[in-house]
Structures
1.
Amino acid sequence: MIENEEMTLEKDSSEQGGLLPPVPGQLPGPRSAAKLARLRELVYPGTANHLAPLVIAAKRGYLVDDVDGNTFVDLVSSSASVPLGAGRDDLIDPLVEAMRRIGNEDSHGVASEPMVTLAEKLLEITPESLTRVDLGLNGTEVVETAVKMMRRATGRPMVLGFLGGYHGETSLTAVLGAEETEISKGIRPMSSGFFHAPYPNPYRSPFAPPRVGGSGDSTVDFIRDHLLFHAVDPEEVAGVLIEPILGSGGCVAPSQEFWDALVALCDEYGWLLAVDEVKTGFGRSGEMFAVEKWGIQPDLMCLGKAMGGGVAPIGAVLGSERAMGGYDDVPTGSTWSWLPWACAASLAVIEAFENEPILENVRALEAVGRDKLGAICDRHPQVGEARAFGGFQALEFVRDRESRERDPELQHLAGRKAQALGILTDSSSTSLNIQPSLSMPPDAFASALDRIAAAVDQAVTELGR
């Protein structure tokens, strides 16, 4: 599946003996630096300013080669959209065959056999409450479709989102998610019809413990006691859209008590429950879909990213009969959604999950993360919390553990130090986020986390924290 990977690997000094590439030289290397400088002259500065200090030449499995001959361990997985590592022939070959046989076709106008098979397969593997599928090109697009359907199915305008969530960066999805003000700055007044509660983050909840006689969860108590009393009539609410586990927002998972209380709230007022599994779906959480962890039967589910296996862009929104079955007048999708070859790639991804012990490996990666990241947290009071939920893992940096004030300077420096040690992570948001290939060997992952531990040590020392 991954050829010649051993040629660039060397034994790491960790106890696990995982195989890692040598530490790269100065970053960016001269060829990467020249290409990045040229790119800054050509593209929007907001894009250029966030690029990593390398230019990719090739990707193989969980490894990334740059144009200067350096090799990095990929713990970003293209924002979790390359779930099983790069360069898998068993995902690429079906795509190529379908492209040669059919080419491109607008699936909103002409059906293809892979489209029918994929729709059947998605409804087979997702929760029983979901009985319909609609087409999408990516996660952002299907989230917008889900909002349209919530409003159309209920005839109500308002949708509840959660502060800290990420659903995309269009005028609608940036406002719905409200991950950070810099994402929605300047566009919030353009998209109405949303209200928000804090995401049920056990580490950063602004609420006291649940009140006696309440819902059993502080966040849902706040929604009931304050938002629905002072701000929004519940009869105007179409439903709720939420990430089952925060991805970009720091790999945070709610409690069972929250989900039970939220489902009860939706049932009481006839709200639709929509889950954004664009990042959590297809094994990232340790379950095929994260809602399985809490026994949730959603009304709508948004899929994307890993659905295409890292070789094709594709997304989907699935819904119950109530959410998607009673009307046919909502315009959805785009010309390039569900191209026959993208459907073929997605079917190959599902087949890989059926035939390989991927979920078992993800749970092993979680165990490694809890051990290794927990040790970093124990060693450094500047790490407020270490989190590992399957292939969602994170370190949250704070100025002190009592106040829990975020320390973005330390966070970003730790990310840069990790890059210098040959480990690619995501430090762009509220935490240092780690998203390995779900097929990455646990011993190699353990060695990569040892390098992250060294990066944190260096960052703490440099800043004198």
2.
Amino acid sequence: MWQDRIVFEKDVVVGKPFVKGTRITVDFVLDLLANGWSYEEIGSNYPQLTEQDIRACLEYASSVIKDEKVLLI
């Protein structure tokens, strides 16, 4: 579950969601994935992140977007 790995603290990274025990934000991890980085590349460049942390970022993003509603005008 993403709730075990993704945390929010108003005084850390300006309140953005980040991976527990790091200062690496969810949006940063998502950007890396969107730019074609593999789990292995992320892990070797940011060894404090596990595959479970990366998956938690994706799960968090999925849960947020599921609740999003777009109003077409």
3.
Amino acid sequence: MKTRIRDRWRNPDQQQSAEKNGEALGYVCWQLALTAARNLHAEDFVYQDDVQRVAVIREYLIFLVHAADRLAFNDLNPTDRAAFVPALALACARQFHRNAVEVLGSGDYQAQFIETLNRRNGHYGECSFGEELPGYALLRAFSDHIQAIMGNDQTNRWVMDQVMDIDGPDVVRQLAKSMSNLHADKTGGAKTSSA
């Protein structure tokens, strides 16, 4: 299932700060996570309720923030990365909070998101990440979390394969493309130094 992603600045000649790029990518991550959750349903996996669906979206967002950090390690200088990643994480946390409140009612979903992100990063950070794609162990760890949310009943027992083999790599490919588009400078190359 495809979604239209807006991942370019209106004025490509004007370079944006690492923080602005992180905030913009946060919305892209939201779109990717929402599309991935919908794709699971389109592939005939079944959500029991909105709590389960929101939890899957949260796991995708966390996975995408981690993947963006790993991609930024190769693509950005340390100063820009130090500004970009927290801006991205906070943008995703805010987006998740706003939408979770709409669906689930009041709660501190932003703090829960950051707490879960920190826990997941501890484990995900031990897994390999290639030049552009997560390694097997990272995809396995991520898909384990999705499987735990979706359950192992007859309908959902193959969700792990879907996430590992198709959806996980697909969202990271789109994420890498969107990061490149947002960080592009006037000449069309990736912005790797501070302005």
